[in-house]
Amino acid sequence: MSSTQLTFKRILVNKAIQSDGKPSLSHFRTITVTEPVPELKDNEVFLKNLSFGHDVYIIYTFDEGETEARVRGYAISRVLESKNPNLPKGSLIFAPSFWEEYTHLHEEEFVRQAFALDQHKGYAQYKDRIPLASYNGILGMSGFTAWGSIETLASQAKPGQVVYVPSAAGTLGQLVGQLFKRKGVKVIGSAGTQAKIDYLTQELGFDFVFNYKEHSDKKAILQEALTKLGATGLDFYYDLMADETVDIALELLNARGRVISVGYLSNKLLDQEPYAIKQYIQILVKELTVAGYFVWEHYDLLPRFFEEFVPLVAEGQIKYKESVIDNAELEQVAESYVEFIQGKHTGKLSVNLASAK
């Protein structure tokens, strides 16, 4: 065992999030630990975490109610020691890490997901035009999920077709809408404030956006949108919520339309029971496809994602909003995550640690 000791901070799960709905600071606690620098085995790396990106999925890791466990979250990290030829010492990597200042990444599943940012040509080429935090944001899990799901499940999209994207001003929705627009697809979205609606329509070019808080009859407003767009129905529904909207979408989808399922926010953030589809008959008679996209199963696409998506971001062809907290103490990672879930930050939120300097 190494004789070198490190003292650093780590955030643990204090209690199960699902026990009382949305996360609060009471669900986390920060401790200081002193541990030996690990002696690495083949393919393992030892990391100094520099920047964390917040994603809703983090609350999914609390499903089993496990407490006193570390909180997992994607990070930009520097490799301090390595026995992995793909993640050399000194390299800058994007990897599933933990909310802590130093991480021993040894689980095969998570080592496989790590990617050396400075090993792809786009990073060096656009280094001065893209801030590091963006690799936790638009170029992190949100961007990878949006791009990957459309490339995998909507590559056949044609100009003039129509997609409905709920939560369209969120970190994922705004990217999904833009990627569909690049294919010539007409985009219907929904958001909760007029400011968000204006951003989606005026800056991102969405074709029709409505305030879901002002329209209790979602089917009626979607039918109105389709009429204004000169469309007979939807061709795609990008499902982030897994709520009753999926039944409305199934009714409004054209024959051989497609539901792309990437999340179930209604169950997590609204503390609801899982929604049971009622319009199953629509899938049969219209030959619809309901397809899930689980981003963790598609890491083979990550090099291609960086190759294709980084230039779009650097050249301003994909617009985005993100928030960054600089010079943060580790405790602020948990604090800012709670604020992120509460919608207090614009776009994707990244936290750069002061200890990273």
Automatic annotation (TrEMBL):
Keywords noted in UniProt: Oxidoreductase
One Pfam entry name: ADH_N_2
Origin: domain of life: Eukaryota
The keyword Oxidoreductase is annotated on this UniProt entry: yes
One function term, GO molecular function aspect: oxidoreductase activity, acting on the CH-CH group of donors, NAD or NADP as acceptor
UniProt domain Oxidoreductase N-terminal: residue ranges: 19-110
Domain Alcohol dehydrogenase-like C-terminal: 172-297
SUPFAM superfamilies: GroES-like, NAD(P)-binding Rossmann-fold domains
Protein name: NAD(P)-binding protein
